[in-house]
Design goal:
Length: 327
């Protein structure tokens, strides 16, 4: 038996790019889990404590418990977006990208560019998170290498219009309505994410935030010169994650056929994203309805879209079973 594999070690390591993109998803998923679990311990990260000149206990004594909880709530919500993105990335690499779907490549490219670029929001608030910077420097080359290698698995040329122009057959009833509702939810998340990034880089707080914290912005800034920049970093990070999630939902629901894995990954994205964001608000007692109304509306849209798609999937599966039995 002859052996004539002319690949280099580097080419073998990169493969067709999908393992690298899946690894990116797994790394983001792990990072999201770490962010949530670390917040649940009630401790700040070492570099955050160093920047502030105090740990979480010192911050609570210098301000109040609400301020410390407010910081953790942003980090838990951010962790939820990373869990959702990580699950979506693994699914994209294992299912549609494996099948050579160009839109899946664009889902990676568009959401990845947005997510990684949101790191640069620190230029607007002046706090360079060293851990975040190191993680970005490690993960970004892996992600870019995966995009570069995976282009070869896509038949034909890659064009940006493939991210929106769908080749799915026309649908009617629950399937069509479910997709439209999902798309409305995704668009809402994109707008919300962009807004939160903007707030994080500028005013940082909305009136409901200050009412929950029971302090003014001036009082918060007087505790430590780096406190507001650290909070702004958390806000902008969450906004970037939310923006990426919204883009993924828009692209995926516009192109993906109604399969079991599609319904499962969408359920996971909703569970992680909305579960973390709304759950942490309940856990810390930040329940201002005006503040949470957009999240409630997004959750209702997401659940309605998912229910409609499930109904369409079950009807299609039942019809196929009936046709097979008749044959």
């Amino acid at each position: 038996m002859s052996f004539d594999d002319r690949r280099s070690l580097f080419q073998a390591l990169l493969g067709d790019g999908r393992p690298l993109l899946a690894l990116t998803g797994i790394a983001l998923f792990a990072s999201g889990g770490f962010a949530i679990l670390q917040s649940l311990t009630g401790h700040l990260l070492p570099h955050d404590s160093h920047a502030l000149g105090m740990d979480a206990g010192g911050l609570t004594r210098a301000a109040n418990a609400q301020l410390t909880l407010f910081m953790f709530h942003d980090r838990v919500a951010f962790g939820g977006t990373l869990l959702a993105i990580g699950a979506a990335y693994w699914w994209l690499s294992e299912f549609p990208l494996r099948a050579g779907q160009a839109w899946a490549w664009w889902a990676f490219a568009v959401s990845g560019f947005t997510g990684f670029a949101s790191f640069l929001a620190y230029l607007g608030y002046g706090y360079l998170d060293t851990w975040h910077a190191v993680a970005t420097l490690i993960l970004l080359p892996i992600f870019l290498a995966g995009l570069w290698r995976s282009r070869r698995s896509i038949p034909g040329r890659l064009r940006i219009r493939q991210s929106w122009r769908t080749e799915l057959p026309a649908e009617a009833g629950a399937a069509r309505h479910g997709r439209h509702v999902f798309e409305a939810c995704g668009l809402g998340l994109v707008l919300a994410g962009a807004t939160i990034v903007g707030v994080g880089m500028t005013t940082v707080f909305v009136p409901q935030d200050l009412a929950f914290i029971a302090m003014t912005r001036k009082q918060i800034g007087a505790i430590s010169p780096m406190l507001i920049p650290v909070i702004a970093h958390d806000r902008a990070g969450f906004g970037g994650g939310l923006l990426s999630c919204g883009l993924l939902i828009l692209i995926i629901t516009r192109h993906a056929p109604l399969t079991r894995s599609f319904l499962e990954v969408m359920a996971l994205m909703g569970l992680f994203g909305f579960g973390a964001a709304l759950g942490v608000h309940g856990a810390i007692g930040y329940l201002d309805f005006t503040h949470l109304a957009p999240a409630y509306a997004g959750l209702l849209l997401f659940l309605a879209g998912w229910a409609l798609c499930v109904r369409a999937y079950r009807r299609a599966a039942k019809g196929q079973s009936g046709a097979a039995a008749g044959a």
